[in-house]
C-alpha cells in the first residue's frame, strides 16, 4: 500500500490542483478521472455541450445549426489567451470541447489533459488533409483536429514604407518608421521571431541564444510603438506602419481599409512561425460524445467552408483550404500551401526550466 | 453589559469569517505558490524554493519599480490638488445638493472600470475623438498627435480612475469640521488664507491621509491603465505581475512579485497607521 499512501500524499500536496499529477496518479492506481483508462468515445449525444474557445471564433450560425440538429444547448465560455486556457484545463474544469493550440501540446498531451479522439467515429475525418493526420505536435493526430491556422510574418503599409526584403531584419532596419512598429505581444511569437532571425530554433532552450534574442528585442524597443496583439486594429487605424502579424489578421485588416492595396504581408526567409488552433476533448469532459459530434459538425464540408469564410484562416480540411484560397484570391501573399506547413517553424511553448529561462528573458524585454 | 458585548462578538463573526476565507487563505496560497516550482502544465509543485524571489530582485526590474512609484506618486499628487477643492466646494457650498454632488463624483464607477479605460483609448487614439477635434479646428492634421503610449496618458488614466477615492474621505473630514472653529479664527482677525492653513487644512488632514492611501495603493498595483493607455515604455509592476499569469504562465514568479509588492504596500499602510496614532496622541495632548 506504499504506492497508495504516496499517491495520497501527492493528492494532499496538490490539493485541488490535481490534473497535472493525473499521469502519476494513474501509475499509482488513484481514481482521478484521468486515471481511469477511458473507453473510446462514442459519437452520440450525452448532454449539452460545454464549449471553451476564443470569443467569436466559430460562426454563430454553425453553432445554432448544431444545436438544432442535435437538440442540445451549446454553453459558450471564452478565454483571452492560450495560457488562460491551459490554466483552466489544468485546474480540472470540465469543458467538453476546447480549442487548444499546437504550441501547447507538450503541456496538454504531456500533462495528460486531453482524451484521445477516435477517428473512426468522425464521419468527416476524410476531410482532414494528410499533413494534419500526422502533425509534428501530435503524432498520429490522436488528440487534436485542426481548426484554424495562419503563419506569422510582417505586414506593412505601402504608403508609409517601401523596400521590404522578406527578412525579419525588416522590423529592425526601417528607421523612418520608428515609433510606428509593433511586435506581437506574445512570448512565443516575439522571442521565437527574434531567435529565428538570429539563425536559431524558434523554441531554443539554450540560455545564451534566448538571452541574445531578448537583447535584440531590447535593442529594437526604442523604435517600437509597442508590443500588441491587436495587429489588425493597428493596421486598420494606421498606427502600425510595420506590424509583426498573423496572416489571418492581415486578411481582416484588408477587409476594413478603404484601399486594400495599401497593406502588404510577407513571410520571412529565416523561418515562418506556424501554429494551429485545434479542437480537443479534455479528460474531464462530461459530455465527450456530444463534443465528438461537434467536431464532426465543424468538419462537414459546408460548415468547414463557413468557418473559413468567417475567420479568414485556412483550417486544414480539403474543403476549407480550397475555400480559403478562393477567399484570398486577390491577395496571393496570403495563400496557404502544404509547403508552409511542412517547412514552417512550429511554435512550441517551453516547459520546466526552459520555461523559466524564457519567462525571465521576456520579462527583461518588457521591463527594459 | 455582558450580553451587549456578546452580541458584538457575534456580529464580528461574519466579517471575520469573510476575511479569513476570502483573504487570509488565498493570500497564504499565493505565498505558498511563490515558493513553489511549476510542473509541465504550469501548476505549482510546492516546496521551499527561493529562486522566484531571487529573480524578483534582478536589477533590470528596478526601472519598472521606480516608474510605478513615480506614476502612482504623480497621480496621487494630482488627484490631491484636484480633489481637495472639489471636496471643499461641495462641503462648504453644496447646501442641499451635497449628496447629489457626491453621487455625481462617484457616478463614473457605475460603469465598469475597464469599459471606461477603453473609452479613453477611443478618445485619445490616433484616429480618435480628440485628434478629430484638433483636426477640425485646423490645429493639427496629419500626422495625428500621439496621446497614447505616453507616461501622461497612464498618469491621466490613474487620476481619472482614482479621483473619487480622494474626494470622498476629504469630503467626510471637511463635512465633520466644526464651523465654530473657523468662525473663532475669523473673530480673532485671521485672514481667510490663515484660517485655511491653520484650521481647515490641519483638521482635514486625516481625510487627506486616508485619500492618499486609497489612491496611491491601488495606483501602485494597477495594470489595466498602463496596458490599455500605455506602451512599451510605461510598463508597471502590475503589468509585470499580470503577464506572468496571463501570458508567460509563470505563476510562481508572479506570486513572488505579488508578495514583494504587498510587503511594500504594507509598509505604506503601517506608515499611515503610525502617523494616524501620532495625530491622535497629539490631539489628546
What this model shows, in words?
The complex is a heterodimer of chains A (368) and B (285). Chain A is α/β, with parallel strands linked by helices and 368 residues long. Chain A folds into three domains: 1-37, no CATH class; 44-149 and 275-336, Periplasmic binding protein-like II (D-Maltodextrin-Binding Protein, domain 2, 3-Layer(aba) Sandwich), CATH 3.40.190.10; 152-271, D-Maltodextrin-Binding Protein, domain 2, CATH 3.40.190.10. Chain A is built from 15 helices and 13 strands. Chain A has helices at residues 2-14, 22-28, 60-70, 82-90, 105-108, 170-173, 187-197, 207-220, 231-236, 247-254, 288-299, 301-311, 318-327, 338-343, 352-367; strands spanning 49-54, 74-79, 97-101, 114-115, 145-149, 152-157, 181-183, 224-227, 242-246, 263-266, 273-274, 276-282, 345-346. In chain A, the strands form three sheets. In chain A, strands 1, 2, 3, 4, 5 and 12 form a six-stranded mixed β-sheet that branches. In chain A, helix 3 (60-70) links the parallel strand 1 and strand 2 (74-79). In chain A, helix 7 (187-197) crosses helix 8 (207-220), helix 8 packs parallel to helix 15 and helix 12 packs parallel to helix 13 (318-327). In chain B, strands 1-2 form a two-stranded antiparallel sheet. The radius of gyration of chain B is 23 Å and the shape is globular. Chain B has one domain (60-284): MetI-like fold (Orthogonal Bundle), CATH 1.10.3720. The longest helix of chain B is centred in the last third of the chain and has 34 residues, at 251-284. In chain B, strand 1 (37-38) and strand 2 form a beta hairpin. Chain B has twelve helices and two strands; from the N terminus they run αββααααααααααα. Chain B is mainly α and 285 residues long. Chain B is 76% helix and 1% strand. The mean pLDDT of chain B is 89. Chains A and B meet through helix 4, helix 5, strand 8 and helix 15 of A and strand 2 and helix 11 of B.
Amino acid at each position: 500500500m506504499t504506492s497508495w499512501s504516496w499517491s495520497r500524499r501527492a493528492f494532499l500536496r496538490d490539493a485541488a490542483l490535481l490534473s497535472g499529477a493525473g499521469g502519476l496518479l494513474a501509475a499509482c492506481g488513484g481514481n482521478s478521472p484521468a486515471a481511469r483508462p477511458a473507453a473510446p468515445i462514442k459519437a452520440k449525444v450525452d448532454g449539452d455541450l460545454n464549449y471553451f474557445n476564443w470569443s467569436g471564433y466559430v460562426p454563430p450560425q454553425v453553432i445554432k445549426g448544431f444545436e438544432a440538429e442535435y437538440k442540445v444547448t451549446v454553453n459558450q465560455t471564452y478565454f483571452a489567451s492560450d495560457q488562460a486556457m491551459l490554466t483552466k484545463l489544468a485546474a480540472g474544469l470540465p469543458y467538453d470541447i476546447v480549442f487548444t493550440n499546437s504550441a501547447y501540446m507538450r503541456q496538454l498531451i504531456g500533462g495528460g489533459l486531453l482524451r484521445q479522439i477516435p477517428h473512426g467515429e468522425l464521419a468527416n475525418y476524410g476531410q482532414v488533409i494528410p499533413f494534419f493526420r500526422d502533425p509534428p505536435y501530435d503524432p498520429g493526430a490522436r488528440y487534436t483536429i485542426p481548426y484554424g491556422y495562419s503563419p506569422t510574418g510582417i505586414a506593412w503599409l505601402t504608403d508609409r514604407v517601401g523596400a521590404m526584403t522578406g527578412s525579419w531584419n525588416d522590423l529592425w532596419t526601417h528607421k523612418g518608421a520608428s515609433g510606428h512598429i509593433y511586435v506581437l505581444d506574445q512570448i512565443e511569437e516575439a522571442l521565437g521571431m527574434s531567435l529565428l532571425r538570429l539563425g536559431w530554433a524558434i523554441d531554443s532552450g539554450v540560455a545564451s541564444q534566448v538571452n541574445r534574442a531578448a537583447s535584440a528585442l531590447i535593442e529594437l524597443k526604442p523604435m517600437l510603438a509597442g508590443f500588441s496583439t491587436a495587429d489588425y486594429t493597428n493596421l486598420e487605424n494606421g498606427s502600425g506602419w510595420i506590424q509583426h502579424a498573423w496572416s489571418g489578421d492581415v486578411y481582416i485588416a484588408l477587409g476594413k481599409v478603404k484601399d486594400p492595396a495599401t497593406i502588404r504581408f510577407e513571410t520571412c526567409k529565416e523561418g515562418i512561425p506556424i501554429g494551429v488552433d485545434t479542437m480537443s476533448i479534455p479528460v474531464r469532459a462530461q459530455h465527450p460524445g456530444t463534443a465528438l459530434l461537434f467536431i464532426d459538425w465543424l468538419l462537414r464540408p459546408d460548415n468547414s467552408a463557413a468557418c473559413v469564410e468567417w475567420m479568414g484562416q485556412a483550417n486544414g480540411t480539403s474543403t476549407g483550404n480550397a475555400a480559403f484560397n478562393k477567399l484570398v484570391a486577390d491577395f496571393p501573399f496570403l495563400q496557404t500551401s502544404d509547403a508552409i506547413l511542412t517547412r514552417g517553424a512550429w511554435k512550441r511553448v517551453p516547459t520546466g526550466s526552459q520555461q523559466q529561462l524564457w519567462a525571465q528573458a521576456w520579462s527583461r524585454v518588457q521591463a527594459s | 453589559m455582558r450580553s451587549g458585548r456578546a452580541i458584538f462578538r457575534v456580529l464580528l463573526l461574519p466579517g471575520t469569517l469573510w476575511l479569513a476565507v476570502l483573504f487570509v487563505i488565498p493570500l497564504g496560497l499565493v505565498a505558498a505558490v511563490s515558493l513553489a516550482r511549476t510542473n509541465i502544465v504550469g501548476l505549482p509543485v510546492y516546496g521551499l524554493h527561493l529562486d522566484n524571489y531571487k529573480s524578483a530582485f534582478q536589477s533590470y526590474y528596478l526601472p519598472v519599480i521606480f516608474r510605478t512609484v513615480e506614476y502612482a506618486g504623480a497621480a496621487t499628487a494630482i488627484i490631491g490638488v484636484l480633489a481637495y477643492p472639489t471636496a471643499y466646494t461641495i462641503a462648504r457650498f453644496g447646501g442641499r445638493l451635497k449628496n447629489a454632488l457626491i453621487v455625481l463624483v462617484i457616478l463614473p464607477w457605475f460603469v465598469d472600470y475597464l469599459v471606461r479605460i477603453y473609452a479613453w483609448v477611443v478618445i485619445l487614439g490616433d484616429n480618435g475623438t480628440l485628434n478629430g477635434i484638433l483636426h477640425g479646428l485646423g490645429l493639427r492634421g496629419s500626422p495625428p498627435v500621439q496621446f497614447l503610449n505616453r507616461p501622461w496618458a497612464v498618469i491621466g488614466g490613474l487620476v481619472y480612475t482614482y479621483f473619487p477615492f480622494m474626494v470622498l474621505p476629504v469630503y467626510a473630514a471637511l463635512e465633520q469640521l466644526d464651523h465654530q472653529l473657523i468662525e473663532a479664527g475669523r473673530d480673532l482677525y485671521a485672514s481667510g488664507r490663515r484660517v485655511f492653513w491653520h484650521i481647515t487644512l490641519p483638521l482635514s488632514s486625516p481625510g487627506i491621509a486616508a485619500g492618499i492611501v486609497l489612491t496611491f495603493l491601488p495606483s501602485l498595483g494597477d495594470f489595466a491603465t498602463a496596458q490599455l493607455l500605455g506602451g512599451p515604455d510605461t510598463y508597471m509592476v502590475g503589468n509585470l505581475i499580470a503577464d506572468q499569469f496571463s501570458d508567460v504562465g509563470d505563476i510562481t514568479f508572479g506570486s513572488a512579485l505579488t508578495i514583494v509588492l504587498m510587503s511594500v504596500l504594507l509598509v505604506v499602510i503601517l506608515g499611515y497607521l503610525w502617523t494616524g496614532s501620532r495625530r491622535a496622541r497629539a490631539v489628546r495632548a
